[in-house]
Amino acid sequence: MAITLDQATIAKLAEHLENAELQAYDVTKITDDYPSMDWDDAYAIQDEIRRRKEARGTRIAGLKAGLTSRAKMKQMGVETPVFGFIADYMSVPDGGEVKFDELIHPKVEAEICVVTKAPLRGPGCHIGNVMAAIDFVLPAVEVIDSRYRDFKFDLKSVIADNTSSARFVIGGNMRNLDELDLPTLGVVLEINGEIVSMAAGAAVLGNPLVAIAMMANELGKRGQEIPAGTFIMTGGVTEAIPVKKGDNVNVRFQDLGNVSFRFA
Fold first, then answer.
1. N or C: which end of the chain has fewer CB within 10 A?
2. What is the pTM of this model?
């Protein structure tokens, strides 16, 4: 694994993908034009998108894992989830509105999230390290919105596109980790009052904390760490459900309360 693209190409692709996000239009997957690009290239493009945002004064609000179901990983032929970041302007209050026209083809997924109280750094980070570093657990719903036409992409393209990050809604209930059993924690996702997905925390790699250990190990390879005080979305417990304008989304989390919002 190595970076195969030159810095100018990385910068050009980062601008291309970020413009598609900020102006809400779709593009074809970048591996069509750069078939030999590597995983490291994909993360380098994502890091450049992050640098562009921070240079404009945008704050990074947290980190996220995607593709965290073992079945999906197997289907895509990968051993590890994909990782990205969320930015301050992507936050929507619980009970608030997501502006549908600012997005391309959004989908929603329920996520179990944590905030850390100690840094986590790979390699060699395991679930015990993660447990020791967690301050509290809280619920959220992520709105993903791939910038790729018809949601057609491969993993390198989706990493470069910051794992389809678009919006997130955090619920107002927090609990200590020792009060919860994350693998059996049930989640019910409703759209317009109708149940469209039911799942439990075990859908995320058997335990959502495994995704955090994998994230720390992946970042460690790039000389980065998860700082103390980081908000982390561990990946979709439910599958990603397409939504339309006017939809009301309500997610009920066992022991963690509800998260709801609508697409205006």
1. N
2. 0.96
